[in-house]
Amino acid sequence: MxxxxxxxTVSVLxxxxxxxxxxxxxxxxxxxxxxxxxxxxxxxxTSRAPSIAINHRxxxxxxxxxxxxxxxxxxxxxxxxPIRSGIGVSVFADDAGNGAVSTYAATxxxxxxxxxxxxxxxRVGMSAGVQQRQLDYDRLLFFDQLSPEIGNTGMATxxxxxxxxxxxxxxxxAGLLYASKVAYAGVTLDHLTTPDDRIAxxxxxxxxxxxxxxxxxxxxxxxNLSPNTANGGKFVTPNILYTRQGPFEQVNAGAYxxxxxxxxGAWFRHTFGNPDAAIAVIGVEWDMYKFGYSxxxxxxxxxxxxxxxxxxxxxxxxxxxxxxxxxxxSERYNDCLQLFR
Length: 341
Known about the structure:
This protein is mainly beta. The protein has a single domain (2-340), classed as monomeric porin ompg (Porin), CATH 2.40.160.40. Helix content is 6%, strand content 49%. The strands form 2 sheets. A 14-stranded antiparallel β-barrel has the order 1-2-3-4-5-8-9-10-12-13-14-15-16-17. Strands 6-7 form a two-stranded antiparallel ribbon. β3 and β4 (101-117) form a beta hairpin.
């Protein structure tokens, strides 16, 4: 019972805090390379033909027995060669605490490519979207509803019920991406206008600076182990992703290995305050389909109440479909963005 009560208490602290307001940090996929538009709007159109990415993350499974954090995303991107531009759209949903706090977003992307030479390019990207965040107040559990003997007493809380439990706001972002045959690097700024995303305000809202801007910096190099990697092949891509949003920071560092129809990789995520997780991924690629599965092994103090995090991804890249490759046999990618395709 003590262990169960500890899980409930931790859940309360994370989901509601002091109830002055409820706001959130962005969810970041461990397989960030399998959701490139969500990483950087400049990735719009990095594949010539249309591409689709589907992602699902189930975080901290086993946390409080029944309160995983679920994140879903679907995105579409395409290159428009006559105007050297890429376009894309995405829909996103995040469910914290079995629906206690839910976030939904729809975003459009645009990028423009500037070629430095045959093997180097710079892309500038922008994003604009609408985001909604809502709180299901009746799913929350407060300290005055807990008992050391039985956990949840089922009694009504004496906390004041907030008048506003949802908010909708527009959101903007921008990104820059450099790519050559051997290396890539990018930077993204999300929530440029730091919109007001507050919900569940009880009493005076106090001084609030808005939804924190998120800075992401990512880079890597591709080491080719076979002559042609445009449609598979063998290669190794060491890479790093640094993210900062408000006072929260994290860095993912590791390597991705492509081996014809198979791929795998390993990363370590550190949140500066403490080590967070070791990440392993494995997957298969055939024709235009690419499926990946990853597992986050929790190494922080949450390992006592969390069994880890599952994540799956499915990418459909029509550039790799056999009926399109026949028309473009002479074309080859001259960059090192193969892990993102």
